[in-house]
Structure formats: C-alpha cells, structure tokens
Design goal:
about 425 residues; alpha+beta; eight-stranded mixed β-sheet; five-stranded antiparallel β-sheet; globular
Length: about 425
Amino acid sequence: MSFISVAPDSHFPIQNLPYGVFSTPDNSTHRIGVAIGEQVLDLSVVKDLFDGPVLASQKHVFDQPTLNAFMALGRPAWQEARTTLQRILSASEPVLRDNADLRARAFVPQASATMHLPAKIGDYTDFYSSKNHAFNVGTMFRGSENALMPNWTHLPVGYHGRASSVVVSGTPIRRPSGQMRPDETKPPVFGPCKLLDIELEMAFFTGPATQMGERVPVDKAQDYIFGMVLMNDWSARDIQKWEYVPLGPFLGKNFGTTISPWVVTMDALLPFARPNPLQDPTPLPYLQHTDNYTFDIKLEVALNCEGLPQPATVARSNFKYMYWTMKQQLAHHTVNGCNINPGDLLASGTISGEAVDSYGSLLELCWRGTKPLDLGHGVTRKFLADGDEVILTGVCEGDCYRVGFGTCTGKVLPASA
C-alpha cells in the first residue's frame, strides 16, 4: 500500500508506477514523472533518493526532458528504480510521507499536468502479429483458403513506419487526403479519405542501444524491452488499398499514430504473463523461447460521436491473442544486424480475437463496410466521421488491484482544404 490515496479502480496503484513526461501551467519544462493514484511524482525533485549501486551515479537521467537516457541504462537500472519507487511511496516509509515540503514540491495532480511523448522516437516499426486479424483481412481480399500469406506463420511480418507523426494521446488527427480508386473501372481520384479506420494496437519501447551488425538473441530480448503503451495506428483504408502494391503502407498510414502517455514497465506486467500461443509450424531456432511472454491485458475501444450521450464500446479484445511475442518481434527485427536505439517504438499490429466483438478495426467490425455498427440513439458507423473521438483503454486485473495504461484518445478533424 502507498501513503498516496489510490482508488480501487485506479489504473495506477503502487504495483504499476508507469513513467511519463509532463509539464504544468506554472512550469513548462518537460520532466519525467511516475503515476501513482491521481498524482504524478516528479522524479527531478526526488532524484537524490535514488541512491542504489546503479542509479547513485546516474541521477542526471531524471533531469532529462524524455525517458531515452533512462531507457538506455538497461534492466538493472530499471529494476533498481522500481524498487526505490515502491519503497519511498510505501505507507511505511517516512522519507516522502513525513516531509511536507518535499511532498508539496514532488507531487502534481494528474488533472493539472499536460502529458507529452514519453521518448524521442527515432524509429518506429509496425508488425502484423495477430493471426485473427491477418486471417480476417486476408479473407476479405483473397478468400479464406488464401487468407494468410505463405510467410506469415514463419516470421513476424512488419514494416518500417513514420516516427515523426507519432503523437501523444489527446492530439487531434486530421483526416488525410490522397489518391484512391473507388471505381476499379476508372482512373484514380484525389480527395479526403472516406474510409478512415482505427487499429487497436499496443507497442513497446526499446532500451539499450545495439551496434549495427549486432543481433538481439531471443533469450536476451527481455533486457531490451523497457515497457508498453496503448496505440491507435490510424488507417486510411481507401488510400492504402490503392497504394500498397508492391511496397506496402505509405500515405494510408503515415499521417498519424497515437500512443498513450504512460509507459507501463515489463516488471509491472510480468505478474500477468500467460503461456505463449501454440505456433505451428515450429519457428526457426532464432525465434524460439520457452518463457511466458504473452500478457493478459484487457483492451477496449469506444467511440464518442455526435448524438451519443456517452461513448459507445465497440470492441473488447486482449493482448494475449497475439501470435508472435514481443521477444520474437525484437529478435527477428535485429537478426539481420539492424541496430536499435533507446526509445525506438515497435508496435504489435491490430489486435483481434476470435469473436466478432473482439475485432480491433472497423474494417473487421463492419466487415469491409457491409455491416454497419449500431451505436444506439440512431447513430451508426461503418468508418470514422469527422468529429468522432476514439478512446482506447487497457488494464490488467490483479488480486484487489489493477495495472492499467490510462487512455489513448484522438479526435478526427476535417481534411485540410
């Protein structure tokens, strides 16, 4: 238990302690914080309390405007920081609890904090690792007998995305324009996307850098995975359909990707690890690992649309539905010698379960626009309309506590004139 009040349904108990970057109206400096209940602990104020063998000489990482330097220190530093934070925030520890002046300077209400991107993202990779999602999309375009491409069950399929348009939750997303070919008997046309979609995803940040030519072995991958965020990888389906052959996603994806502001560490998530999915055929040796690295994270997608008294939940999914694990994704990403850097972002791809209401995109939920969603109060959707707000949430259910990610939100603005 913490001396800070934490509601039973809070995403941020002492068992979580996610990291983020924030500023306040009276201090525009971007600084690193940890969420506890409805408060943010400013680590720049309490950095001298990190006096363990690793962090005693590395306290400067908590004076930085991003988490990159802290991520670069590696797993021993991350674990030491977590141990220190749980100690100084516990109900039995007086160092913060009984120091009124330090508490007044160190804690900020989340309601008064402005959140920013947690890291300087140098590179962003998007995988395609949900078998249910890949099968659904493949069925739509190629039929069920050819839904999965021949390579899909042999390696984690992915592509390199655009890091500059990754934004923090709450940032509006403008409807993109581009080339489309709605009538395949006629030439393409240019205009605003008409089939704007969501993609329910999660992503992880990497830690220590590797050198070009160096691999991250699958049995060491956990030492390079700092923590996870929620992600909405917005998609312009009509632009994507026309452009993606032969090189894949481009303008249909790079206009915006939204992530949640709080990075939940892998140590906070390890109690929710579950057995990895059965993979058939057995992956090649460099992708094989026996430790559980699939996680029971309950995910929801809600739409807040004009005409609705409150947001309507349209999907309930779970990260445990992933076919390829994060360790396999990172091992595959680097097996050719591709180097990684602190703050690189690697995403799961759309997360879909087997049930219709667990699909992670409108493309699937409305089955290519043939089955409109009834949101109630006379409101229906096939794809997103201007003014719609998308709200993603994710939470792990513990024994009388929750480890959550907060929300990942974004509102659709009209296309530029």
